[in-house]
Structures are given as C-alpha cells and as structure tokens.
Specification:
CATH superfamily of the largest domain: tm_1862 like domain
CATH architecture of the largest domain: Alpha-Beta Horseshoe
Strand content: 15-25%
Number of domains: 3
Structural class: alpha/beta
Bound molecules: iron/sulfur cluster
Oligomer: single chain
Length: 454
C-alpha cells in the first residue's frame, strides 16, 4: 500500500514537472520525501535516524523541502515529536490527504517567498514556513491521481482503503482509518486505461480485499469476486492478483473463482498469524485453526497446484511453548510456498502493546529460527515440484545479481502465475512479455530455467 502511495506521490510531482533524483544527490535536490510505514518498530527508529541525517543536508542546501508522510504521520506521538524536535521538516501530511501534497508544497514555497525565504541559521529552522495537514479519516476517495509506476507491464490498483478488523497487534486501522471501497466503474476504468498503457498484470490492493463492497449503478451491490469476474473481461489484461485477504472473510464464491477464472493467478496470500486457537483469540483474528485448515483444503481442491503464502507472528504476548508448537505443526501441515515471518513488536496504541506477558527477545528469536527452518523446508519442496515443468513467466527485467549469462545473454527474472521468482537467460525484448520457461533447477527462494519456444 505504501509502495503504491509512493508511486502516486511521484506521479503527482512528475505532472508538475519534477523528475526523480538519487539519494546521493540529497545536497542538491529540491525535495526529499520520506513515506513512512508504522507496521514494525524498526521502521520508527530508521525514520528518525534518516530525519536526523537530513539536518546536515538542510544546512548545506537551505532551499531543500523536507517532506514526511505515510502511516506514521497518523500517530499523534510521532507528529508531536517531529513538530517539537525536528524544526527542519517543511511539510507533514498523512495517509488521507496524499492528493493535497502538490498544493501543500506550493503553499510552502509561497510561505517562504512571503517571509523572505529566510532560514534561521541558529536553529536551522524552517518551522515558520511549515505546512502541516493531517486528516483523521479519509473524507473522500480521490480518483484519477497519476502514478509513476515501478514497472510498465504491471501495476497496483487500490480497490479499497482502511480496515475494520482491529487485530490486537495491528496499527493499521488507526493509521489508515475505516474501510471504504471504490466504485467498481472507477476501478474498471482504471484497469482498462492501464492495459491500454501496456499493463498485463494488476494487483488489487486493500487491507482486506475480501470485504470489498462496491455499488454499481447498473447492477447494484458487488462483492470482491464480482469485481474480479468483471475485471477479467478487460481485453488485453492477462493476470489478476490481489493482496491481502483475511481468512475470516474468504468466501466459497472466491475459492470457486480460483478454479474457473483463467486470469486470476494461481496464488493466494492467506495470513494465518498463529496456529494456536488461544493466540488467535488474543489476536482478535476471528477464525480458528480448524476453519483455516479447512479453507486451505478447499482452495487446493478448487485450484490444484495453487501457491499459498502467509504471514506468521512469533512471540505474541503470552505465547507459550505449546502454543508456538501448534504454529510449527500448522506450518508443517500446510507446507506453504513462502511465508513472511515476524517477531512480534509492540505498537504503541494497540491493545497487545499493553499486555503484561510480553515474550523476552531471546525466546522470540529462538522460536523464529525454528519456524523459519520449517517454512524453508516447505518452500524448497514446493519449488522442487516445478522442476521439469514449463511455466508462463511475466518478465520483470534483468536479474539483480548477475546481468549477463555464460552464453552472453542477459540474465532475466520474472514471476510465474504462482508468484515464483524465475531466473533465465534471454534478451532485452522479452522484458514485459509473458515467456514460456522450462524449469531446470530450484532452491528455497527461486527457480531457474530456460526460455522455450511458445
Ligand atoms: S486485518 Fe490486517 S490490516 Fe486489518 S487489523 Fe488485522 S492485520 Fe491489521
């Protein structure tokens, strides 16, 4: 979600004539924007560290506009600290008023002009020009914001904003507000325009896409599956993905679509968070181990070969050894294709942060390592099953580590429908196309293959 917000911020600035610069140019650029995430504690620390470093850049380059935004700005204690202790910050905006950023920037320049563009050298302060606007809730869904996409051939598409679930460890409902769905017509139009622009794959975004509720003037209320079927009719669109789905709201109708809708990719991210019913209850997840495993069974029955990934939190307050072992057993049963595993970190303002029985860090780390071993075993065996198969790979670009293969071709990478990362040798003109690749080798995190004729 934050990544897509960054694409929109970048798109709005490009529309006003700005061009992106590298981090190394911080002493000469006009604007620095830090888009923050508040999901994990570590991000807070890195944010304030980066902000501290920008004081030096501001001293060298007093015209620099230092702008901060994202989820962290929706938290009073964070913005209070910035306002008090970081006078070199010029613009502060939140997740609900991203669309106002270009105007806020203009307001900053107008303030500077009016007040003589003077920076108080003693304080290195730009506080007197500062533009600071944060809304508690999204007032309206602003449509048709431009976006500077990371890839020409694939794109994120927001279908809804916010979350109503209030899992006890999560800050998102406080920083992103309550659920609001976009109108289906607007989503369909955006996807159609993206395809005209060369996009082959869209990833539909929402904190809990399963609770999408759109109103179509022609056909009334739409749920998420209705939206997928409608989007699948977009000529030229090859693939539809989505992120993220809450197990408690995953409907049989959507599971059925996995088996029948050709454009819906054979991949689902289904966060389990814990394999223990008692922990799930304390997390306020509103499903239990049995119902989760039943969902996995139904998904695999409807779409054999589908890849399943998940999120798991280790060391949630009060997690006993037995409860943790239930998570290990679940991971072993499901054999995920991949998993994002997290050490629980308390987020100020959430109920779980106040729980008294926090787990010591060393225990969390030991449990984490045991879980990762099991997850990796599962990923390795799921990937090994691809060897010998020919997959359709949407090519993203040159592989990061090595750009030239032994035969002098470029080493490319891309994703299968199952979201498996595939490296193979090819040519530049393959980037952005769907290429058939025969898989020859695999490891825990990726596949390796060779391009074959279509
Ligand atoms: S459903 Fe996801 S975004 Fe919403 S509160 Fe739970 S973890 Fe956070």
């Amino acid at each position: 979600m934050n990544e897509h917000d960054s694409e929109i911020i970048s798109g709005m600035l490009a529309a006003r004539g700005y061009t992106p610069a590298s981090a190394a140019e911080v002493d000469v650029v006009d604007i620095v924007i830090i888009n923050t995430c508040s999901i994990r504690e570590n991000a807070d620390k890195r944010f304030f560290g980066t902000l501290g470093q920008l004081k030096k850049a501001k001293t060298k380059n007093p015209d620099l506009a230092v702008c901060v935004c994202g989820c962290m700005m929706q938290q009073e204690q964070i913005t209070g600290k910035i306002r008090r202790s970081y006078p070199w910050v010029d613009v502060i905006f939140g997740t609900h008023n991203i669309h106002e950023f270009p105007d806020m920037l203009q307001e900053l320049y107008d303030n500077r002009k009016r007040k003589g563009n003077r920076i108080d050298n003693k304080l290195r302060s730009s506080k007197e020009f500062r533009v600071d606007r944060i809304y508690e809730d999204r007032r309206e869904i602003v449509e048709e914001l431009p976006a500077n996409r990371l890839f020409a051939h694939k794109s994120f598409v927001n279908i809804m904003y916010g979350c109503n679930n209030f899992c006890t460890y999560c800050i998102v409902p406080y920083t992103r507000g309550r659920e609001q769905s976009r109108d289906p017509e607007n989503i369909i139009r955006e996807v159609r325009d993206l395809v005209i622009d060369g996009v082959k794959e869209v990833t539909l975004l929402g904190q809990n896409v399963n609770s999408y509720k759109g109103i179509s003037p022609e056909s009334g209320q739409w749920d998420f599956t209705d939206l997928i079927w409608a989007l699948s009719e977009t000529p030229g669109l090859e693939r539809i993905r989505f992120m993220t789905s809450h197990p408690k709201d995953l409907s049989d109708k959507l599971i059925d679509a996995f088996g029948r809708c050709d454009k819906l990719c054979n991949y689902i991210h289904l966060p389990v968070q814990s394999g223990s019913d008692t922990v799930l209850k304390r997390m306020n997840r509103k499903y239990d181990r049995k119902s989760y495993l039943e969902l996995v069974r139904k998904i695999r029955q409807a779409a054999p070969g589908i890849a399943i990934s998940t999120d798991i939190i280790v060391g949630f307050p009060g997690e006993t050894e037995e409860e943790f072992e239930e998570t290990l057993a679940l991971a072993q049963d499901v054999r995920y294709d991949s998993a994002f595993t997290f050490l629980y970190s308390p987020r100020q303002g959430t109920p779980a942060a106040e729980y008294e029985d926090q787990i010591p860090e060393d225990i969390k780390h030991r449990r984490f390592n045991r879980l990762v071993d099991i997850i990796n075993e599962g990923s390795k065996s799921r990937n090994a099953a691809f060897v010998g198969r020919t997959c359709r790979v949407l090519v993203d670009g040159p592989a990061r580590k090595q750009s030239v293969s032994e035969e002098g071709k470029i080493l490319l990478n891309g994703r299968t429908e199952e979201f498996k990362l595939v490296d193979f040798a090819g040519s530049e003109d393959m980037i952005g196309r769907i290429i058939h690749v025969k898989i020859n080798d695999s490891n825990t995190f990726s596949l390796r293959g060779e391009a074959v004729n279509d």
